[in-house]
Amino acid sequence: MIRVASILDSLHLEEDGAGRYRAANVDTGHRVVFGGQLIAQSIVAALEGQEGKTVKTVHTVFARAASPETSVELEVDPVHAGRAMASSTVTVSQGERICTRSLVLMSADEPDLIRHAEPASAVPVPGDRPRGDEWVVAIVDGVDLDRPELVGPPVLEVWTAFPGAPDDAGVNQALLAFATDGFLIGTAMRPHPGVGQAQAHVTLSTGVLSHTITFHEPVSASKWLLLAHRSLYAGRGRSYGRADVFDADSGLVASFVQDAMIRPMGERRAGVL
Fold first, then answer.
1. Buried/exposed 177-187: b ≥16 CB within 10 Å, e otherwise
2. Number of C-beta neighbours around residue 25 at 10 A
3. Helices 35-47 and 169-180: crossing angle, nearest 10°?
4. Which of 108, 120, 180, 272 has its CA 20 to 30 A from that of 223?
5. Does domain 4-108+129-264 sit in CATH 2.40.50.100?
6. What is the pTM of this model?
7. Domain ranges of the chain
8. pLDDT in tens, 15-63
9. 38, 92 Cβ separation under 8 angstroms
């Protein structure tokens, strides 16, 4: 698995001019940079200079894959800044290649006028407190997304935690964002015999096209968080899914949706990624 320290290192942005930063990549063992890293870094970059605010929503479009061999460059372009709300675009590039662009909405905390929230399903919390120095992932019911002969409904529940995460609201949001990028493509594959995540980048061309996260409550990434995924549609070389994130007390803390690509390897048409 991935050490939490290496993820935190990637969130330490080196200033490279006004509104410009440079950051390292997390070594995931893949040929491309993990998309969750780019979202997490965009959150941290957008929050620079936005004291008293946290991220409400981040919408990211993935234009090109980033190479793990080269550091990433982030450029923040403020859209507006007010007392209660602020927004910026964050562009992640490598040289002249734009990899992602995010629109980040930030918000100051305000008291309730009304309140309700979707409850979590009755999924037992893992018995042990998250420990160690690695990103912890525990898939409920031992579902194996890599085995194409195993089929099931297009749902997946995953417990995750980042032991030792610092007590920083923005960093905790970024760590959760890192975790949200990893499972909805596999969830879309579950009902289909002969298709599994082990075939990604081997016989199948897969990738995230856009990803939107909305934060509802403060996040503590060092504690157990349940990601409850559901893939609502797959077809025409695409998949669409959504998920809710709950803490160990069944409180809804975030939600996200994702559009992705799933098609045979080597299929490439003019004007299409």
1. bbbbbbbbbbb
2. 22
3. 160
4. 108
5. no
6. 0.94
7. 4-108+129-264
8. 999 999 999 999 998 889 999 999 999 999 999 999 999 999 999 999 9
9. yes
